[in-house]
Amino acid sequence: MPKFTYSAAKGIEQSSGSGFIINDAAIQPSLKEWTRSTDGAAPNFNTLGFLHQTISVTLDDGALNITIPNGQVIGEQKTVICAAQGASHNLTITDAAGTGHIATNPAAGAVYVFVYASTNNWKLLA
Fold first, then answer.
1. Residue in 42, 40, 25 with CA at minimum distance from that of residue 80
2. Other C-beta atoms lying within 10 Å of the C-beta of residue 58
3. I want to staple 94 with a disulfide (CB 3.0 to 4.6 A). Which of 36, 61, 77, 100 is the partner?
4. What is the DSSP letter of 25?
């Protein structure tokens, strides 16, 4: 496989070697926005798109339980952002093994970053 290099100035260039390199260009992660009051019960990240790297949730009052399905590769990252919140709620984010992180009344703007460590196992970065 040839080596491809992308730069904002020159676009994609092919050369000898292997790999794909990006220079001088920002990579924009995909984002899915979800609102509990208008989008229904707890999101299923398979259908919401934990194909998406980042999910922004807007919550009303009450508890929300979210399950992150298995990742594709070790080191994969997923981010959950609490965009806005109601007066009182808990946010529980669980992996397929049932290991959960509970946030009691998370502030608007709270960010949770998870890294896939192994089968059924996401770790919350502190």
1. 42
2. 18
3. 100
4. -
d(CA 77, CA 123): 9
Say which amino acid occupies 22: I
Helix locations, the chain, DSSP H? 36-39, 45-48
Q: Which segments within the chain are labelled E, that is strand?
A: 3-7, 11-15, 19-23, 31-35, 54-58, 62-68, 77-84, 89-95, 100-104, 110-118, 121-124
The residue written with tokens 């984002």 in the block is 31
Structure tokens at 105: 């009344």
Q: State the CB neighbour count (10 A cutoff) for residue 42.
A: 16
Domain boundaries, the chain: 31-124
Per-residue pLDDT of the chain (126 residues; tens, 9 = 90+): 789 998 888 889 999 998 888 888 777 666 666 665 544 555 555 554 455 677 777 776 666 777 777 888 888 888 888 877 666 677 778 777 777 776 767 778 888 888 888 877 888 886
